[in-house]
Amino acid sequence: MPNIKSAKKRVLVTEKKTERNKAIKSEVKTEVKKFLALVNAGDKTAATSLFPYTCSVIDGAVSKGVLKKNTAANKKSGLAKKLNAMA
Questions:
Q1: Is the pLDDT of residue 55 over 90?
Q2: How far is CA 34 from each of CA 16, 20, 24, 47, 48, rounded to the nearest angstrom?
Q3: In terms of residue numbers, what domain contains 80?
Q4: pLDDT of residue 43
Q5: 38: domain CATH number?
Q6: What's phi and psi for 86, nearest 5 deg?
Protein backbone atom coordinates (compact mmCIF):
# COMPACT_ATOMS: atom_id res chain seq x y z
CA MET A 1 0.00 0.00 0.00
CA PRO A 2 1.37 3.43 -0.91
CA ASN A 3 2.25 6.03 1.72
CA ILE A 4 1.77 9.17 -0.36
CA LYS A 5 -1.73 10.63 -0.42
CA SER A 6 -1.92 11.04 -4.21
CA ALA A 7 -0.72 7.47 -4.72
CA LYS A 8 -3.41 6.19 -2.34
CA LYS A 9 -6.01 8.09 -4.33
CA ARG A 10 -4.73 6.63 -7.61
CA VAL A 11 -5.12 3.11 -6.17
CA LEU A 12 -8.75 3.83 -5.25
CA VAL A 13 -9.52 5.42 -8.63
CA THR A 14 -7.91 2.52 -10.48
CA GLU A 15 -9.99 0.01 -8.52
CA LYS A 16 -13.19 1.90 -9.35
CA LYS A 17 -12.32 2.10 -13.05
CA THR A 18 -11.40 -1.60 -13.12
CA GLU A 19 -14.79 -2.54 -11.67
CA ARG A 20 -16.59 -0.29 -14.17
CA ASN A 21 -14.64 -1.73 -17.11
CA LYS A 22 -15.31 -5.30 -15.92
CA ALA A 23 -19.04 -4.60 -15.76
CA ILE A 24 -19.09 -3.12 -19.25
CA LYS A 25 -17.05 -6.00 -20.73
CA SER A 26 -19.32 -8.48 -19.01
CA GLU A 27 -22.41 -6.79 -20.47
CA VAL A 28 -20.90 -6.93 -23.96
CA LYS A 29 -20.06 -10.63 -23.58
CA THR A 30 -23.56 -11.40 -22.26
CA GLU A 31 -25.29 -9.67 -25.16
CA VAL A 32 -23.03 -11.35 -27.72
CA LYS A 33 -23.76 -14.75 -26.13
CA LYS A 34 -27.52 -14.08 -26.24
CA PHE A 35 -27.28 -13.13 -29.91
CA LEU A 36 -25.15 -16.16 -30.80
CA ALA A 37 -27.54 -18.45 -28.93
CA LEU A 38 -30.40 -17.20 -31.11
CA VAL A 39 -28.30 -17.61 -34.26
CA ASN A 40 -27.34 -21.17 -33.30
CA ALA A 41 -30.97 -21.96 -32.50
CA GLY A 42 -31.93 -20.77 -35.99
CA ASP A 43 -34.34 -18.08 -34.78
CA LYS A 44 -33.76 -15.48 -37.49
CA THR A 45 -36.51 -13.03 -36.51
CA ALA A 46 -35.40 -12.82 -32.88
CA ALA A 47 -31.74 -12.59 -33.89
CA THR A 48 -32.55 -9.82 -36.35
CA SER A 49 -34.40 -7.84 -33.69
CA LEU A 50 -31.61 -8.32 -31.11
CA PHE A 51 -28.77 -7.39 -33.51
CA PRO A 52 -29.15 -3.57 -33.28
CA TYR A 53 -29.19 -3.69 -29.48
CA THR A 54 -26.09 -5.89 -29.40
CA CYS A 55 -24.31 -3.44 -31.71
CA SER A 56 -25.34 -0.49 -29.54
CA VAL A 57 -23.93 -2.21 -26.43
CA ILE A 58 -20.65 -2.77 -28.28
CA ASP A 59 -20.64 0.88 -29.42
CA GLY A 60 -21.29 1.98 -25.85
CA ALA A 61 -18.22 0.08 -24.71
CA VAL A 62 -16.21 1.94 -27.36
CA SER A 63 -17.50 5.33 -26.23
CA LYS A 64 -16.54 4.51 -22.65
CA GLY A 65 -13.04 3.50 -23.72
CA VAL A 66 -13.34 -0.17 -22.79
CA LEU A 67 -13.06 -1.49 -26.35
CA LYS A 68 -11.08 -0.04 -29.24
CA LYS A 69 -12.89 1.09 -32.37
CA ASN A 70 -11.43 -1.60 -34.63
CA THR A 71 -12.14 -4.36 -32.09
CA ALA A 72 -15.77 -3.28 -31.97
CA ALA A 73 -15.95 -3.13 -35.76
CA ASN A 74 -14.56 -6.66 -35.99
CA LYS A 75 -17.07 -7.96 -33.43
CA LYS A 76 -20.02 -6.31 -35.17
CA SER A 77 -18.84 -7.52 -38.57
CA GLY A 78 -18.57 -11.09 -37.34
CA LEU A 79 -22.04 -10.95 -35.82
CA ALA A 80 -23.48 -9.51 -39.03
CA LYS A 81 -21.82 -12.29 -41.06
CA LYS A 82 -23.39 -14.94 -38.83
CA LEU A 83 -26.78 -13.27 -39.10
CA ASN A 84 -26.57 -13.02 -42.90
CA ALA A 85 -25.38 -16.62 -43.19
CA MET A 86 -28.68 -17.79 -41.66
CA ALA A 87 -30.60 -17.00 -44.86
A1: yes
A2: 27, 21, 15, 9, 12
A3: 5-84
A4: 92
A5: 1.20.58.110
A6: -70, -25
pLDDT band at 68, cuts 50/70/90?
Answer: very high
Please choose, from the candidates 87, 45, 69, the residue with its C-alpha nearest in 3D space to the C-alpha of residue 77: 69
77, 55 contact by CB (below 8 A): no
- Cα distance from N-terminal residue to C-terminal residue, the chain: 57
Q: Domain tally for the chain? A: 1
Tell me the CA distances in angstroms from 46 to 4, 51, 63, 74, 76, one per residue in order: 54, 9, 26, 22, 17
List, for residues 3-45, the tens digit of each pLDDT value: 999 999 999 999 999 999 999 999 999 999 999 999 999 999 9
